[in-house]
Amino acid sequence: MHSLIFFLIALAILIIIHEYGHFWVARRCGVKVLRFSVGFGKPIWQKVGKDGTEYVLAPIPMGGYVKMLDEREMPVSEEQAQFAFNRQSLAKRVAIVSAGPIANLIFAILAYWMLFVVGVSGIKPIIDDVHPASIAAQAGLNPSDEILQVDGKRTPTWNSVYKALIQKAEYGERTEILVLTSGIEQQYALVIPQVSIDQASSILDKIGIEPLRPAIKPVLGEIVPDSPAQKAGLKVGDVLLSSQQQTIDNWSKWVELIQASAGKEWNIEIQRNEQRLTLTLTPQAGDDGKGRIGAAVDASQSTIPQELQAELSYGPVEAVWQAVIQTWDFSSSTLKSLWGMITGKVSTDNLGGPISIAQIAGSSAEQGVTSFISFLAMISITLGILNLLPIPMLDGGHLAMFAVEAVRGKPISEITQMQIQKVGFLILIMVMFIAFFNDLTRVFG
């Protein structure tokens, strides 16, 4: 129920933002808006505003719509024809249709801006160990060094270091790293190896750096759908106690054990509320050969020593640019994943539906307001990107038809548009079926 509530809250926020983008630009372009609906189906609440628009709340929370005056859908008097959508110039129609996805992207920028201004908590990037003969060792990095900057960018937390290195790893580039060693600032040059997007999580290991991590209680804060953790029956909030009757009291030791146990089946003991349970877990080998279970720790359940606490924040002006970069990076990653699914390089098993989104919404809300806002930003970007895809019935499909109209000098015939819409409907049904099937498989195994 907790996850469902936050799922509905998240969905309502993002639907309103998306549809308000269409609504606002349509009104500014002189188009008459007949209905603004959040949800589909028979209205459970409706009101006609002073502007003549009917505002509706419907029970099926899988989207919304803005219904505009349009001669293709209803009889329109000659006096009202100038306010019809189909009578507007091509530029105005493009602006109205693209306004929804753009509103989602703008919301993401605003959300990230707020997070960056308030500050994102993290752990100081102090090196615990450097692997012998590694890239880091050859560059001269040492244990206890604190990474201050990557290519002139301030990196107060491990997360900011990771993101800076990943940008370099996309193409494999030389980078300058400023560290604090024994109270003295020193500059080192590293040649970052090229790493594919599915190996991004191992970038520090490939460079040869072991981060200094505080002892964190092994409390699960996130379970990746269809992962070994979920298949074993692990849930958010579970406390990992022991493996093969050997007590393990911190998350780092669990990570070491999991990474060294790819493909091995072993029993673990957990605590769930007041109950102790024994589960069977089999870590899956990643591309680097190390074990993975698809679970993340809930660091909020542990106290981080003051000397290791850090915060990534920017001034109001600089935060705007950083928020744009963050939105661009996540948009690029989303497009790469979608292209990977189309080309077969990424499994469609990664596609999640409403159940997966609800689980993540609940999990992020439990971790605090900043985590939930970050989740909203990521889902808003995904919604915006998906709607821009050239699939009939989506905003991107309409924009594609407008592009054809611009080339031909006249609109596509209504009969052809109807046929294209049918194809688009079938595509969307197939995608929804895959997403629902994946969700049900993850829940019921």
TrEMBL record:
Span of domain PDZ: 111-183, 205-274
Membrane topology label: Multi-pass membrane protein
SMART domains (alphabetical): PDZ
Gene3D superfamilies: 2.30.42.10
Molecular-function GO terms, alphabetical: peptidase activity
Listed Pfam families: PDZ_6, Peptidase_M50
Transmembrane segments: 6-25, 94-115, 372-391, 423-444
Location(s), subcellular: Membrane
Swiss-Prot/TrEMBL GO biological process terms: proteolysis
Cofactor(s) the record lists: Zn(2+)
UniProt xrefs under CDD domains: cpPDZ_EcRseP-like, S2P-M50_PDZ_RseP-like
Major subcellular location class: membrane
UniProt keywords, alphabetically: Hydrolase, Membrane, Metal-binding, Metalloprotease, Protease, Transmembrane, Transmembrane helix, Zinc
NCBIfam families, alphabetized: RIP metalloprotease RseP
EC number(s) on file: 3.4.24.-
Name of this protein: Zinc metalloprotease
Entry similarity comment: Belongs to the peptidase M50B family.
